[in-house]
Amino acid sequence: MGKSKELAVCLVSGGMDSLVTAAIANEAHEKLAFLHLNYGQKTEKRELDSFHKIAQHYHVAASSQKIIDISFLKQIGGSSLTDENIEVKKYKGESEEIPDSYVPFRNTHIISMAVSWAEVIGAKKIYIGAVYEDSSGYPDCRPSYYQAINNLIKMGTKNGDIEVITPVIYLKKDEIVKKALELKAPLEFSWSCYERNDKACGVCDSCALRLRGFEKAGIADPIDYEIRPTYSK
Questions:
Q1: Using CA atoms, how far apart are residues 63 and 145, in angstroms rounded to an integer?
Q2: Which among 29, 14, 59, 22 has a CA at the least distance from the CA of 167?
Q3: Which is nearest to 7 in space by CA: 121, 160, 114?
Q4: How far is it, in rounded angstroms, from Cα 173 to Cα 27?
């Protein structure tokens, strides 16, 4: 079965999950448009660099790349990712509590931008790297959230035919690592750390989940870390 000729928008944060989502979208579509949002996060510079490298890897034309500033999320605050007064916490194991790295209603703002752009450029599919494994902490990573957002898009767009696709939502981090290898996705370009732009800290929640995924997959993570704790035991 060949690739679809239908243009698709892919949300590319620069993280590992969005990288693998872009790789999956690239397998399914001949043409992709990449969208990146700067929202005042502490690793904004490094994530933007990752976006550019990933876009170049997948030969996405400059005219099909969009970077939008939504730094009002920093102005609103309430998250350790955007608020300088809230320290990025070290990983302390599994928890059912919503962590302070949650950016209030972020994915809804991001998806809204993607839907608006999709309407303008004629794209019918929007790919996002949401992962259900994160949903105990992030309510906007739950499958039920994406069912609701797709219903909203049907009701609130001109033709009602745009759909958000979540191809990695049920994958564990080690499965995402293995999928990246299968699709030859450039993991060395991705960035997951919440705190640092030079070397990944290795101890924030996002670094911990990523490192544990690589450990379980039996693969060495190609990016640099300040320290590399073991999390899979």
A1: 31
A2: 22
A3: 121
A4: 20
Decide the pairing of beta strands 163-165 and 32-38: unpaired
Q: Is 11 left (phi over 0), alpha (psi -120 to 50) or beta?
A: beta
pLDDT, tens digit (0-9, with 9 covering 90-100), for 136-186: 568 889 999 999 999 999 999 999 999 999 999 999 999 999 999 999 999
* Burial of 226 (C-beta count, 10 Å sphere; 0-12/13-18/19+): middle
- Say what the alpha-carbon torsion angle 112, 141, 138, 154 is, to the nearest 10 degrees: 40
Strands 8-11 and 32-38: parallel
CB count, 10 Å around CB of 76? 16
Say whether 125 sits in a helix, a strand or coil. Answer: strand
135 has a pLDDT exceeding 50: no
Domain residue ranges in the chain: 8-191
Domain 8-191 fold is Rossmann fold (3.40.50)
Strands (E), the chain: 8-11, 32-38, 65-69, 125-127, 163-165
Both tokens of residue 56? 């170049």
